[in-house]
Structure formats: structure tokens, C-alpha cells
Amino acid sequence: MSVKIRLQRHGKKGKPFYWVVAADARSKRDGKYLEKIGTYNPNTNPATIDLNLDSAVKWLHNGAQPTDTAKAILSYKGALLKHHLDGGIRKGALTQEQADAKLAAWLEAKAGKVDAKKDGLTKVQADAKAKAFKAEQEVNAKRLAAAAQAEADAIAAAAPAVEEEVSEEVEASTEETPAVEENNETTEA
């Protein structure tokens, strides 16, 4: 029986979520498996990988063959490096302490890279949010200026009409006033 380390798909349509499993090569993709080694969620950025390192290395020692994607995941989490270092220990090229030190240094460097990527993504999101907020403020300022200009234009357009009405009323009242005075003069005489 050949054993494969592969992904088993879960999750809903368009939102995949995978289990990393050790399964018989003849079993179905989402069928029976021997052991669940970890999970892989590609929906997050960066992708979330939770892997039982010791279990994965145990299966690699027993001869399990990872698929291409599973191999990339195992490499990313350091399982292949640990398997390689354990081979060096068995051959006598390394001691257990040296292998543990190399693995710890590699895992620390990898964690630093992942944290740097997360910080970069957070900064990019913050910059995009600030840029969008600034653009929105500019649009709002333009809209308020346009509304104020339109209101001023409406007042200015209404003001000449009011002035024309007032001037017409003043002209009409001045025309009527002399007529009244003439009538008063005639009555006095």
C-alpha cells in the first residue's frame, strides 16, 4: 500500500478549505484517510497553514510521497527540512542538538518573513484606506463648494429680479405720487 500526503477539499463553493492528510493512494480525494496532519486555508492573505510537524515527518520517514501542493506546504512549514536533518542524524553527520538549532534558526527566519509580509499587507491596506479617505474628502469639498456656488447663483439670480420688482414698484409709486399731489393742488385752488 502506497501512502500519499495530499490535500482533502472541504469548505463551500468558491471558498475552499483543505485538510492535509496521509491517505492510501487508491482512496478518493475526499474519501477515507489514515491521519489528518493539518489544515490549509488559501482564503486568507497570507494563506493560513496549521501543520503537525512531527506527524508529517513521521509519515515522510515511513515513505509517504507528498503531492506537489502538499510538498510546497510541507516545505513552507519546515517538515521537509526536518526530514532532511533527521536523515543527517541517522547517518551521523549531525547531532540532534545541531539539527534542532538549524531547524529553530530556519523557523525563526521564516516567521520573520511571514511577519514582514503581514506588516506590509497591513501598511498597504492602511495606505489605501487613507488615500480613499482623502479622495472622499476632496470630493465632498468639491460638492459642498458646488452647492454653495449654486446657492449663491440662485440668490444672485433672485436678487436682480427682486431689484427689478422693487425698482418697478418705486417707479410706479413715484408716478402715482405726483398724480396725487396734482389732485391735491387742484383741490386747494
In short:
The chain has 189 residues and is of the alpha+beta class. It is built from 4 helices and 5 strands. Helix 1 packs across helix 3 and helix 3 (79-91) runs antiparallel to helix 4.
Architecture overview:
With 189 residues, the protein is of the alpha+beta class. The chain contains four helices and five strands, in the order E-E-E-E-H-E-H-H-H. A five-stranded mixed sheet has the order 4-3-2-1-5. Strand 1 and strand 2 form a beta hairpin. Helix 1 (53-61) packs across helix 3 (79-91) and helix 3 packs antiparallel against helix 4.
Helices, strands, pairings?
Layout: E1 3-12, E2 15-24, E3 35-41, E4 48-51, H1 53-61, E5 65-66, H2 68-77, H3 79-91, H4 96-188
Parallel strand pairs: 1-5
Antiparallel strand pairs: 1-2, 2-3, 3-4
Helix pairs in contact: 1-3, 3-4
Any key phrases for this structure?
189 residues; alpha+beta; five-stranded mixed sheet; 4 helices; 5 strands; 66% helix
Strand order in the sheet with the most strands: 4-3-2-1-5
The string of secondary-structure elements, in order, is EEEEHEHHH
Low-confidence stretches: none
Over the alpha carbons, how many angstroms does the gyration radius reach? Answer: 41 Å
**Main pleated sheet:** 5 strands, mixed
Instruction: Give the N-terminus to C-terminus distance in angstroms.
Output: 139 Å
Shape type? elongated
Number of strands: 5
